[in-house]
Amino acid sequence: MNKIYLAVHKIRTIEELARRDQWVNKLHPLVKFIVTISFLVCLISIHRFDLERLMYLAVILYVCFLAANLSLVQALKRIWYIIPLLIVGGIANPILDRKELELIAGVMITSGQLSFFVLLLKGMLSVLMSYFLIATTTMEELTAALYLVKVPRSFILIILFVYRYLFLLMEETSQVLVAYQLRTSGSKGIHYKEWGSLVGLLLLRTIKRGEECYQSMKLRGYQGGFYTMKSLKVNKVDILSLGAYALLLYLVFQGPVFVWIGVWLEGVMG
Amino acid sequence: MNEMLVTIQNLSFSYEKIENEILHDISFDVSRGESIGIIGSNGSGKSTLLKVIAGLYPDFQGRVKIQDMEVVKKNVNHIQQQLGYVFQDVDSQLFLSTVEEELCFGPMNQGLSKSLVKERVQKTADILGLNSLRDRQISKLSGGEKRLVSLGCVLTMNPLLLLMDEPTTALDSKNRRNFIRLFQSLEQTKIMVSHDLDLILETCKRTILLDKGRVICDMDTTTLLKNEELLAKYDLELPYALQKK
What's the maximum distance between 2 C-alpha atoms anywhere in chain B? Predict the structure, then answer.
């Protein structure tokens, strides 16, 4: 089984998650879209040394995962590839910014180290929240949500086409690689002399597949329209869910909710 | 006299003007409700003929009319909503994620209400036995299941004319038998391309033999398929059912 086939399988698995019969999955796609966007906006607005608020957002994200019955461990396994990118993005911080901040357990923490850690966390949280969105919302629902917020139809169609053709490209690549490996005694990788012809072949095959798919769409009445069978009516559960999320976000950012929890816990524990 | 649904007059076609003609001076009519088989050896132009009828290659010479509407660029969208095309390669026909989405795509594009779309999809799923597959991902279906879905997503459009290119490829014997029953029960006009001459014998009353883009003969299926000499001349063999007798 080659890596591309596995990648297609992984994406399909996320699609299957989005089709589960969970209450979060059944929420209106616009609600989940707003939740994600507002979370990302809050995340971006957090100061580079404000680790405390970042932890609050991490708690909110964890609550979202719990509500959607999603495994955080599985999600982390799927997104670990981005960690090297985040490290590359922030690696200069601890080197260039050596201003001493605080001594913790005998180790002096510099502002560069803290901002690097915050950057890492921000990156992880933003990817995890995006994962939450796609693992609870199908592409069809997501595009329906974009349609409702008046994103131009042509833009939505481009997203849908790219999404559909991505699979075609990956499947064709996978087939070409399997055919190559079977005729080269299972050699690892592709000999550099074959790269050019294989890329050319892949291009021709995907053009043919793409053309046939377009013909299939045309023959089933497609004229550039965007339709969905999903109900786009917002119901009470959607409004209540969005309200609860907004309240949680407000309390975390504006109210001393964790101080209250601390006081309450102190009272309970005597 | 039966009402003509498809009229083809002096049809010639080549993919590029510099290339040899793939179809040459083809003429025939198809009455409403008729089932026609198109046979011929590899490269005889069968699939291209179906695609020209479907309006996928509107730059041809001659005339093609479907229900009194000329197959020309400005009419293609309208004509394509009236016909159903089953592709030879199911993977090219099915491009959405799930069976349900595939079944809904055609009728939604026809502008039907959601309730009517649901009704049509349910009816088609009942006929083809697709109810247990409706939530499944296309990528996880077997070849035979994909073939049934490809038929289903055409039938949900309730087309006037069904064009089928090797529709029993990848079907096991049981599903092939089911397909033949289904085919015979459909009231629509049907044009089917197949190498499976037994299938043609069982499903089509009239058959057209193509060779190098030309119509060699157009006659009653049984008479044509019994003519061993003619079939052999065009690299075809007697159907198995007739060989036994």
Answer: 54
pLDDT by residue, tens only, chain A of 270 residues: 567 777 777 888 888 898 888 889 999 999 999 999 999 999 998 888 888 888 888 989 999 999 999 999 999 988 888 889 989 988 888 888 888 877 777 788 888 888 999 999 999 999 999 999 999 998 888 888 888 888 888 888 888 888 888 887 888 888 888 888 888 776 677 777 878 888 888 888 888 888 888 889 889 988 877 777 777 788 899 999 999 989 888 887 776 666 777 788 788 776
Residue range(s) in chain B whose domain bears CATH number 3.40.50.300: 1-82+161-167+188-237
Probe site for chain B from A171, A220, A231, A232 (most B CB atoms < 10 A): A220
Contact between B99 and B146 (Cβ < 8 Å): no
Best mutation target, B15, B53, B97, B136, to test chain A (most A CBs within 10 A): B97
Residue B199 burial (C-beta neighbours within 10 Å; 0-12, 13-18, 19+):
buried
CB–CB contact A229 B56 (8 Å):
no
- As given in the structure block, the two tokens for residue A6 are 């596995």
The identity of residue A109, as a single letter, is I
- The answer, for B137 touching chain A at a CB cutoff of 8 Å, is yes
Q: Cβ contact (<8 Å) for B109 and A225?
A: yes
Please check whether the domain covering B1-82+161-167+188-237 is classified as CATH 3.30.450.70. no
CA of A160, closest CA in chain B: separation in Å? 10
Placement of tokens 């690689």 in the chain: A177
- Report angle CA B164, B179, B166 to the nearest 5 degrees: 30
Which residues in chain B have Cβ-Cβ distances shorter than 8 Å to A225? 109
Residue B110: list chain A partners with CB under 8 A.
Answer: 221
Report which DSSP code applies to B166. Answer: S
Hey, how many other C-beta atoms are within 10 angstroms of the C-beta on A129? Answer: 21
Q: Are B148 and B129 in contact (CB under 8 A)?
A: yes
With CB atoms and an 8 Å threshold, state whether B114 touches A229.
yes
Between A216, A221, A223, which is nearest B95 by CB?
Answer: A216
Contact B51 A212 (CB under 8 A): no
Which residues on B lie below 8 Å from A222 (Cβ)? 105, 109
pTM reported for the whole predicted model: 0.79
- The first and second tokens of residue A30, run together, are 């616009």
